[in-house]
Amino acid sequence: VQLQASGGGLVQAGGSLRLSCAAARSTFSSRAMGWFRQAPGKEREIVAAMSGSSINTYHADSVKGRFTISRDNAKNTVYLQMNSLKPEDTAVYYCAASNTALLVFTTNSYAYWGQGTLVTVSS
After folding, report:
1. Sign of the CA dihedral with 10 first, then 92, 122, and 48 last
2. Burial of 40 (0-12, 13-18, 19+ CB in 10 A)
3. pLDDT tens for each residue of 74-88
4. Distance CA 80, CA 21 (A)
5. Is there a contact between 46 and 109 (Cβ–Cβ < 8 Å)?
6. Which candidate, 73, 115, 70, 121, places its Cα nearest to that of 94?
7. What's the pLDDT at 37?
8. What whole-number distance in Å separates Cα of residue 2 and Cα of residue 21?
9. Strand ranges for the chain from DSSP E
10. Average pLDDT over residues 25-38
11. Cα 22 to Cα 79: distance, rounded to the nearest angstrom
12. What is the distance between the alpha carbons of residues 62 and 64, in angstroms, rounded to a whole number?
């Protein structure tokens, strides 16, 4: 599964960005999708995840109420809407696809990774 992430950039604190991740495979709807991020000097962490059916979602406490994951299975695309951005949200953001449709949110549950898109939030 090839994943292409886009939408990163430089934004001021309090601003918004929407990340997109397009999957080049028709089995997209049978896969849980996740967004992870990695800041300099830190480990990669889960930001949000969604089951293949879109029924179940997970958002990390640090982004709950500010970020929203969604997906359009007809377009093989998953999104991350990021509002009220903070400088501590600065990181490279990665989308990932699992081999299961069930909601999963650990790094090793995801088999396929996009190339990452940089989000920089200035204060």
Report:
1. positive
2. exposed
3. 999 999 999 999 999
4. 9
5. no
6. 115
7. 98
8. 10
9. 3-6, 9-12, 17-23, 33-38, 45-50, 57-59, 67-72, 77-82, 91-98, 110-113, 117-122
10. 90
11. 9
12. 6
More confident residue, 27 or 94: 94
Residues belonging to the chain:
123
Integer-rounded Cα radius of gyration of the chain: 13
Using the predicted structure, report yes or no on whether residue 32 has a pLDDT greater than 80. Answer: yes
Q: How confident is the model at residue 28 (pLDDT cuts 50, 70, 90)?
A: confident
Say how many CA atoms lie within 13 Å of 50 toward its Cβ.
Answer: 20
27, pLDDT greater than 90: no
Round to whole Å and give the CA distance between 12 and 84.
9
Going by the DSSP 8-state scheme, the letter that residue 106 receives in this structure is S
% residues pLDDT > 90 (the chain): 91
Residues 6 or more apart in contact with residue 43 via CB below 8 angstroms: none
Q: Say whether pLDDT at 14 is over 90.
A: yes
